[in-house]
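> example.struct
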């Protein structure tokens, strides 16, 4: 077998937008992957995992400015002399944040676009798109816009696109995240059966990885360290602190104890010709409590989150806070909601601006107190006040999103798939920091291992109905 991927002495630094020189993200990286081999790259927080994936896909430094040295070859293409659009049949890339890859108005158009670029005939195009949608359980979403999809459904669209094009090399950055167990198993099956070269990059070791890969690497301090499965897994767990984790015990609530309850809540909606409904017979969450919410992709977990925080109105039923009925506007002030995608809630030029914005609107808080609170929160969440959120890594943007809600100090909060693209240690640490304020939390997740780390009580959505797990 000849080489499908050759990375020789590669180093990369992003362009510095300040007077401070940029530090290397990757340093003297070496990787050789033969055709048909499957490689797992485990990487802790801010190790350069997604940067490496983008380099392999030809996107960096083409679209993300920086200095790249060394040589890279992928399926016989010298990446230093190949444009990204010429790599369609050579490499397929799935980002950890699927929304940054969407370009079309509908799901079927998203899949059809690269086929049009390759000059595929209309009849064959329709057939290939239909087959890919069916394989990934997306046939009924063909004419649906990306904005109407759940996080897992968005990820499946990109995976359907990759498997449909079937390029020589698949680069999958956190592609198991966002997926429920059924689709994680299906993705593992597709990887196992394909004769293509597959590189999976992940911030967690999942059970679906067992028996799936030929080689294992840990991205540590900008360089790849290879080793057998057990050795690489132990090295990675120690590096990111996952080997020292135990279940998070609830902290005592020192202030007032608040409770949110939902009774006989029902939500129904017709979305682009499709009927969707969710029934919640009963739900309760008190200050200091942490409960999990699980269920298949598209089952209604995020819908329930939107109902709780007042972004959507229930068709019927009632929400009560401390025994009193609360409408959508009242719930919006009481219940915080960390979206799956932090970029939907981050919009200001610097970390300092993001953290101080809500506090500065409250004229009762002196400016020096605001500065003190903002500085303290930045330190707790490992953030630089002068950093630009748009240039920060996806996991660090998640930390910023959580720090904003830490300062808002809502009595209750919903964390929608917080653990995606984060190590177990980091995700648990964010939950712990939020709980210090006595916040009651709903943690939405697809990962049973993470659910056991943060809570001993939970709810599950099955067949349009939410019940105790």
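> example.seq
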């Amino acid at each position: 077998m000849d080489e499908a991927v050759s990375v020789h002495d590669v180093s990369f630094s992003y362009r510095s937008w300040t007077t401070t020189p940029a530090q290397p993200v990757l340093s003297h990286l070496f990787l050789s992957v033969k055709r048909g081999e499957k490689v797992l790259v485990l990487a802790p927080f801010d190790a350069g995992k997604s940067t490496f994936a983008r380099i392999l896909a030809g996107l960096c430094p083409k679209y993300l400015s920086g200095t790249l040295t060394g040589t890279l070859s992928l399926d016989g293409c010298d990446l230093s002399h190949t444009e990204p659009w010429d790599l369609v049949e050579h490499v397929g890339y799935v980002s950890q944040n699927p929304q940054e890859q969407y370009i079309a108005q509908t799901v079927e158009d998203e899949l059809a676009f690269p086929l049009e670029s390759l000059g595929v005939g209309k009849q064959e195009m329709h057939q290939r798109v239909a087959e890919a949608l069916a394989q990934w359980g997306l046939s009924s979403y063909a004419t649906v816009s990306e904005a109407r999809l759940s996080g897992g459904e968005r990820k499946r669209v990109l995976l359907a696109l990759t498997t449909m094009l079937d390029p020589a090399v698949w680069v999958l950055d956190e592609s198991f995240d966002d997926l429920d167990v059924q689709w994680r198993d299906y993705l593992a099956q597709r990887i196992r059966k394909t004769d293509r070269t597959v590189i999976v990059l992940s911030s967690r070791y999942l059970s679906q990885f067992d028996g799936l890969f030929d080689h294992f690497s840990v991205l540590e301090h900008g360089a790849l360290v290879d080793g057998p499965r057990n050795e690489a897994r132990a090295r990675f767990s120690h590096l990111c602190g996952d080997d020292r984790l135990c279940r998070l015990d609830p902290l005592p609530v020192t202030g007032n104890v608040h409770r949110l309850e939902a009774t006989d809540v029902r939500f129904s909606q017709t979305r682009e010709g499709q009927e969707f409904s969710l029934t919640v017979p009963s739900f309760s969450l008190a200050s200091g409590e942490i409960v999990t919410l699980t269920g298949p992709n598209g089952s209604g977990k995020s819908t329930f989150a939107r109902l709780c925080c007042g972004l959507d109105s229930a068709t019927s039923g009632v929400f009560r806070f401390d025994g009193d009925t609360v409408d959508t506007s009242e719930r919006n002030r009481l219940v915080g909601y960390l979206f799956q995608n932090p970029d939907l809630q981050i919009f200001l030029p610097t970390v300092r601006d993001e953290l101080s914005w809500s506090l500065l609107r409250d004229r009762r808080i002196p400016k020096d107190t605001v500065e003190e609170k903002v500085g303290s929160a930045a330190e707790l969440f490992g953030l630089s006040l002068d950093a630009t959120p748009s240039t920060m890594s996806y996991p660090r943007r998640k930390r910023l999103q959580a720090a904003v809600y830490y300062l808002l100090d809502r009595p209750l909060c919903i964390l929608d798939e917080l653990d995606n693209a984060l190590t177990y240690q980091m995700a648990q640490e964010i939950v712990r920091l939020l709980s210090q304020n006595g916040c009651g939390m709903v943690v939405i997740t697809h990962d049973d291992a993470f659910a056991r780390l943060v809570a001993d009580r939970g709810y599950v959505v099955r067949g349009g109905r939410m019940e105790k797990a």
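> remarks
Residues 34 and 388 are 39 Å apart (CA to CA).
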